[in-house]
What we know:
alpha/beta
Amino acid sequence: MAQIDDLPPLRDVIRRHGLSAKKSLGQNFLLDLNLTTRIARAAEPLENVTAVEIGPGPGGLTRALLALGARRVVAVERDERALAALAEIAARYPGRLDVIAGDALTVDLQEALGPERARIVANLPYNIATALLVNWLTIEPWPPWYDSMVLMFQREVAERIVARPGGKSYGRLAVLAGWRTEAKILFDVAPSAFVPPPKVTSSVVRLTPRPVPLPCDSKVLQRVTEAAFGQRRKMLRQSLKSLQADPLPLIEAAGLTPTARAEEITIEGFVNLARAVAAQQQLKV
Length: 285
Ligand code: SAM
């Protein structure tokens, strides 16, 4: 195992602090510091960077981020049992680790960071990974407070994030991610790397915000993609009826074919649809 610092091995940390993994908290810990270092390296260069980590747990990734030179790590952890273990890391790196004890879905990270820009790096709890990502992708105003995200997901979710039109993985997540970021799968991580091992392979994904995405309202884009992919096998003229009784004028205004299905529509097509919906709403006001 790599000697990245003089802190005890993660197995000892887990034993000493009674950190038996809880399924309800999506806990699958990484105990190999070589691997956590590999994930942290994907977020380099880290000098002068504030890293935001969701769910540090026993702190394997936190330690790698600090050892690789992150100026500061702001970590949000919901499991109070992990706080004492994280305090030991904070003592080893004075002034560089701030732990927020709370729920990442409700903590206001923007407020915690102030005017500082940050980089999100995390082995996410899988039960809330998609919800967190959607929150980060729909932040207003854009560009957001983070300059990139390096995140671990289940492989199947990673494929839905980077999917292109035409396949079964292409859906709401691919449209949101592709609209506002450039997303790339960097590498896979086998179930055996985690304690306890999850049932499926995981993937590390990097998402880099586009400085100027195609202009459209993120809330309207979400509504449009929910309607279209909610009935993905149906033609747009049918699936978009959940948006309005006669969706043909919208489809026409967006320059799309009424008989097309959601998975054939490009991101630009969905943006045009969202703009048509927004324009119509403005007319009604
Ligand atoms: N980063 C550690 C690692 O790589 O070994 C742990 C990753 S584990 C997959 C997910 C972590 O997220 C756990 O520590 C869990 O307690 C924490 N967690 C779960 N739900 C959370 C929430 N709503 N807010 C903050 N942390 C949460």
